[in-house]
Each structure stands twice: as structure tokens, then as C-alpha cells.
Amino acid sequence: MPKAYWIAHVTVTDPKPYKLYAEGASEAFREFGARVLARGGKAEQLEGEGHPRNVVIEFDSMAQALECYNSPTYQNARRHREAAGIAQITIVEGV
Q1: 3-state DSSP call for residue 67?
Q2: For the segment 23-41, what is each residue's pLDDT rounded down to a tens digit?
Q3: Which of 3, 28, 30, 45 could tie 74 with a disulfide, CB 3.0–4.6 Å?
Q4: What structural domains does the chain harbor?
């Protein structure tokens, strides 16, 4: 079964509630055995619109990644992010 990757591009507009989101989201990722591969490190935007924060998280499967996103733990955390930033999140199945 191929792995899946949660890819997020984020611009934080209010750091205080975003910190609450990050703490809650990290709890959800641990709950689902996810591995953070990149989180907010140096990035070079080569094409298209970019965001200052880029995140890549590996899951064992697409189903696991979607279960994490839809979990109560993640959705509770997500509420803190809604007014604290602009996010584009995609889950991609690996090859």
C-alpha cells in the first residue's frame, strides 16, 4: 500500500491562536503515527504563489491521512487555525 503525504502551504496571520492549532495538530499527527518530514524550514518558491510556511507529513496510507484530517483531535485544532492564517492543504498518495 502506498504512503500518503499531507502537504500544507501556510501564511500565519495571528501567531497566538496558530500556536494552539500547531499543538493540537501535532497531537493528531502523533495519534495517527504520522512523521513530519518538513515543517517551516528554509524554502525557495520557484513558481506560483508561495507561503512562508511549508509542511510535509508522511502517513502510512491515504486512508490514515484522511482519518487524521477528519478526526475530532485534528478538527478541534483546525478551529484555531481558521482565523489565524491562510492555508492550502493537499493529501497526495505516493508511488
Answers
A1: helix
A2: 999 999 999 999 999 998 8
A3: 28
A4: 4-42+51-93 (3.30.70.100)
pLDDT tens track for 50-66: 999 999 999 999 999 99
State the cell numbers at 35: 512523521
Q: State how far the alpha carbon of 89 is from the alpha carbons of 1, 13, 40, 57, in Å.
A: 22, 17, 14, 11
Q: Angle at CA 36, nearest 5°, toward 28 and 34?
A: 45
Q: What are phi and psi of 59, to 5 degrees?
A: -120, 160
**Of 69, 75, 73, 76, the residue nearest 90 (C-alpha):** 69
Measure the CA–CA gap between 6 and 69, rounded to whole angstroms.
9
Residue where the block lists cell 490514515? 64
Compute the distance between CA of residue 39 and CA of residue 51 in angstroms, rounded to an integer.
12
Residues forming a β-bridge with 7:
56, 90
The reported pTM is: 0.91
Single-letter code of the amino acid located at 39: R
